[in-house]
Amino acid sequence: MAELNFPADLKYTQSHEWLRIEGDRATIGITDYAQSELGDVVYIELPNAGLEIDPEVPFGTIESVKAVADLFCPLRCKVVEVNHAVIDSPEIVNKSPYGDGWMIVVEVADPSQFDTLLDAEAYKQLIGQG
Fold this sequence. Notes:
This protein has a single domain (about 10-110), classed as CATH 2.40.50.100. The protein is built from four helices and nine strands. The protein has helices at about 30-40, 85-90, 90-95, 120-125; strands at about 10, 15-20, 25-30, 40-45, 50-55, 60-65, 70, 75-80, 105-110. The strands form two sheets. A six-stranded antiparallel sheet has the order 1-2-3-9-8-5. Strands 4-6-7 form a three-stranded antiparallel sheet.
């Protein structure tokens, strides 16, 4: 198995998304571990900008040759940008999960919500890599 990447500057969720936090905004994608478990990604459904996200409700779906999975954000937030490139070319997620393979950018009203996220070490423990 290839070496998985867990950038220390990101935050992680128990449902295998990563967040790059900048002020009251966060860019969200799926982790290297998630894309490796899914296999070749063939379809991604994402919301339109302006959608209010509730932490218990999926904001989209990702489909691979092996499975279909829901995408979650554990924060109450609003979508401000959508990466249409991954909708048009979903394989980008496999090639660059932390770069060009990002999904959405959200804005949070309460940045203290970021404190509930996992750091890289805690995420590695969660998936048995730590």
